Amino acid sequence: MDDGRYENIRFVDTAYTWEDLQLEPALKAGLQAVCAQVEHQGLVLDEWGLRRRYPYGRCVSVLMSGPPGTGKTMTAQVLASRLGLELYKVDLSQIVDKYIGETEKRLKQVFDQAEKSNMILFFDEADALLGKRSEVKDAKDKYANTEVAYLLQRMEEYQGIVLMATNQAGSMDAAFVRRFRYHLVFTLPDEALRRKIWEDALAGIPSAGIQLDYLARQFQLSGAQIKNIALNGAYRAAADGGVLRMDHLVRAIFQELQKEGKVMLASEFGEYGVMLSEFLAETGPSIP
To answer: Where on the phi/psi map is residue 203: left (φ > 0), alpha (ψ -120 to 50), or beta?
Structure first.
């Protein structure tokens, strides 16, 4: 529990376990490799004598990139739970400062705090800083690149685990990405994985007539979106007889996508489009 000891970092509860992760096999294998390095450092570096050959760069640094809602934050929580370590989240959007030198001071404070405790540092919204690395055209670019260089330097000196999440890995140069020990690429789930996520999200909810194959096939959703829809559908069901039905989920899907500015046509809901038309007739103008 966060007791307020630290500035610029926030304790994150690690409620998820390895079994909760629904990821592609290759991505899970990457996570296993991260765990293996942490769990067997003593054997490899000390008993096998590799520590003297690798005096620097022993930080377990992991870049997690991919679209929003694909499981990066959940993965950070699962890694912390698996390794039995506390997870502290660093919001770079709050660390980055417009005044020269202030960003480095705040980053120094973060790493100084972390070095006093065996914690995992999780840099969220890393685009706030990493996206600034660019060709130097003026003094602003120079100082932005200095901030990135300082972050990399402290990260390599750190003896623990650093996780960094970004939605825009494509905007980073390859030289920067290579400085991380691991790069885990998160993607939107395919149909088979979406079905598993739907199944897990709806487990335990009294239901009737739920078509998991249809839900997985018809809508290319992220894991976070599916969980939001399942929760909203459950509340609809609770207020409407206590049994989850397809019409509850159809309405929840429409509103989840509408929240993100996407306009869905009734025809895009296939055989369940009539349910959407009925919903829209109740709440506002119909759509084709």
So the answer is: beta
